[in-house]
Amino acid sequence: MPNYVEPFAGSLAVLLGRPTDPRNEIVNDIDCYVANAWRAVKESPDEVAAYCDWPVNEADLHARHYWLHNQIEFRTRMGHDPDYYDAKIAGWWIWGLSCWIGDNFCRPRQQASLPHLTGGKGVARQVPHLTGGKGDRGVNARRLRNDESPSASPDGRSRSGSQSANLADWFAVLSDRLRFTKIVCGDWHRVLTKAATFGQGFTGVLLDPPYDTDGHDDVYGELSRGISAKVRDWAVANGDNPLLRIALCGYDGEHEMPEDWECVAWKAAGGYGSQNRAGNDNALRERIWFNPACLSDQKNMPLFAELAL
Q1: Residue 18: CB atoms within 10 Å
Q2: Across residues 26-48, what is the average pLDDT?
Q3: Whole-structure pTM value
């Protein structure tokens, strides 16, 4: 698929797992900390890695959480300047997420809640698993996937096998992969215009909004209320466009789609809470609805096969 659009980008897990070389890609997230992290990793991977490289410390987690949440000017600039990013905010935010258990780190709501520390090694506990695109350019992505440290950085400097070096190499690979990806911060409609999608030809659109049945109002506040239904309405209204390949994510029973849409069940691996709780019913409720223009063989490609792992 030459064009790919993802209005609710989040961790970019699907984009990074695309089986084809990147061409025209647009990702968006209304959460300015998410969008900033990807912009900063794309433009200044070494600087972000340096700010991420910090041991787990509860006092620092409290202090940085408070500081990040109070960056009002930063949030304003992220919504108005498509080229703006802050590597320090990105690094501290990524570090904080790696130490925090739960999903309310720097969210609009629940800011007074206490952080929970993970038992791992923070952000450096593992290297990335990249499968799509041209990740083998610069840093050797295959060796990174095998938990090996490359002998040299993209600029030729030697690196040891330390966690700091692995972390820098991790972000170098991500930066290389995102080189031509447009990263937008704002409302999801902004990246679903004709010019951004089928105006460029055949376009794949992944719609993975906050689920209405998932309690996201407590996390995102007004930002997510009713979004799932609005996204479904857009998908149905545009589902007959032969130039669009639309995949809509949700829970079983959440969306009533036209009969010619195909529904595929898959099982989510789940996060920390799911893995440490007996039974994870939501993991079994995951569904993806495909519009009629999606061919059956496309639904079985590695891109969607990985979602079921």
Answers
A1: 22
A2: 96
A3: 0.78
CA dist., res. 11 & res. 262, Å (int): 26
Starting at the edge strand that comes first in sequence, how are the strands of the sheet with 244-251 ordered? 181-184, 24-28, 3-6, 203-207, 244-251, 286-290, 262-265
- The one-letter amino acid code at 48 reads V
Give the type of residue at 207.
L
Q: Which residues pair with 249 in a beta bridge?
A: 288
- Position 182, amino acid: K
- Strand bridging mode 3-6 / 203-207: parallel
CB 270 within 8 A of CB 299: no
244 bridge partner residues? 203
Please report the pLDDT score of residue 55 as a whole number.
92
The domains of the chain are located at: 32-179, 186-308
Report strand pairing: 244-251 vs 286-290: antiparallel
For residue 274, give the nearest of 289, 263, 286, 262 by alpha carbon.
286
Is 221 within 8 Å of 73 (Cβ atoms)?
A: no
Distance (Å, whole) CA 275 – CA 269: 8
301 pLDDT band, cuts 50/70/90, is low
Maximum pairwise Cα distance, the chain: 58
Identify any residues that bridge with 205 across adjacent strands, giving them in sequence order.
Answer: 5, 246
Query: Phi first, then psi: what are they for 240, rounded to 5°?
Result: -90, 0
Integer Cα distance of 144 and 130 in angstroms:
9
H or E stretch at 219:
helix 217-220
